[in-house]
Amino acid sequence: MPNRNNQILKNTNAKLLDEFNASIMFDKELYSQDIKGSIAHSKMLALQNIISNDEQKSIENGLLQVLKEIESGEFKFSLEYEDIHMAVENRLTQIIGEAGKRVHTARSRNDQVCTDFTLYVQEKTKSIQEQIKELISTFVELASKHTTTIMPGMTHLQHAQPINFGFHMMAYANMFKRDFERFCSSFERNNYSPLGSAAMAGTPHNIDRFKTAELLGFYAPTQNAMDSVSNRDFALELLFNISTTMMHISRISEELILWCSYEFRFIQMSDEYATTSSIMPQKKNPDVPELLRGKTGRVYGNLISLLTIMKSLPLAYNKDTQEDKDGVFDSVSTIEISLNILNEVIKTMVVNKDNMANACKIGHLTATDLADYLVAKQNMPFRTAYYITKELVQKANSLNKDISELNIAEIRSGAKELENIDEEIVSYLNLENSMNSRDSFGGTSTKQTLAQIEYFKEWLKA
Ligand code: ARG
Known about the structure:
Blueprint: H1 2-21, H2 24-27, H3 31-47, H4 53-72, H5 84-96, H6 109-144, E1 150-155, E2 158-164, H7 165-190, E3 192-193, H8 209-215, E4 220-221, H9 225-230, H10 233-259, E5 267-268, H11 287-310, H12 325-348, E6 350-351, H13 353-359, H14 367-378, H15 382-398, H16 408-412, H17 425-428, H18 431-437, H19 446-461
Parallel strand pairs: 3-4
Antiparallel strand pairs: 1-2, 5-6
Helix pairs in contact: 3-4, 3-6, 3-8, 4-5, 6-7, 6-12, 6-19, 7-10, 7-19, 10-11, 10-12, 11-12, 14-15
Bound molecules: arginine.
Arginine binds next to helix 6.
């Protein structure tokens, strides 16, 4: 009796252990990289006379057959083979027989998983970069239509100085350009092949790691086998780069959410990308940018999770690192859909120029212009000019007017020091003139905004 129960318990535990230990449920995503890596490895083994040319041909054809089976959905993934590496090798041997058992010569799953995962990260880095570039060109295109569309520029979410909407959009183009460049530099730093590091210390076989590196599109092999099998920096960099890009996505999302509220009404989102309420029939909700903002949190979680997994791991390989993949796959699919959706939202939204212009008439956006005028024309110390301007702002408030709407008489009666101010001050306090006066490099003037747009158009072409 007790024996039988033990047997059941054993079976249950074995199944539980398989489930716990395996990574096939998620690392099957790496099938194409795994097959590519094995083909390159077999070619190198043949070139080095470690396997015969016939064996290599047979391995390569067998692997291509496995690839076909996976892509057609015919392939049965099972917990029996712990991960994609064992699953592919096993099926290969089923198909081609003895030669299949030679493919794992001079490698280990430890270097194999790093190779596959690096290839995956590098491929995704390139495709995410393409998407970022598309988004940047959407911002540039939108900006070029709005270099004279005046709107309130804000600090502390309070009206600060007049800017044009194109300038605001170009601020985002700049952020996403930095993201693009960050992905570039990670690609460069991580484009080295771990293959042939074997379990942790290299191999006694006469392999040519430079050859496999070349066949797989890497610049060269990695330098140290021990580091190679325990390294996950390349995955962390991808997670960080995705997180930073999502942070930028969440910032524009937040602005879109504010801008389509009744308080702003600066934009209107296309019906396609807005949702309704199940109870309030009048509602048009910005669920899409809210989700983009929310998904940013999830992507940060994946970054912190891998950082925490890697923390304190002794050299070299440890099974802990099997936990690296799920979060990376999740962050990749999250950013892919997010960039896609954001691009469409920006392309299809309607910009309410009039509401932006009207909003500029609240909050004395051109107050700094008076202070700057007094400094430039009357050689007044800035702090003195600042307090005189403050007095005029109070005067404007008492008249229920914005500083940009005051006539010369009202300005002259605003402060003792303004009594004899030249009439030209009225034009300095004009919103559009104020915006265009900020003509320093990188400033908001239409001229500078157009120059930025030109620079970006050239950059996008390169
Ligand atoms: N399945 C593992 C992973 O995803 C790779 C295998 C290495 N396993 C091992 N016990 N050495 O990281």
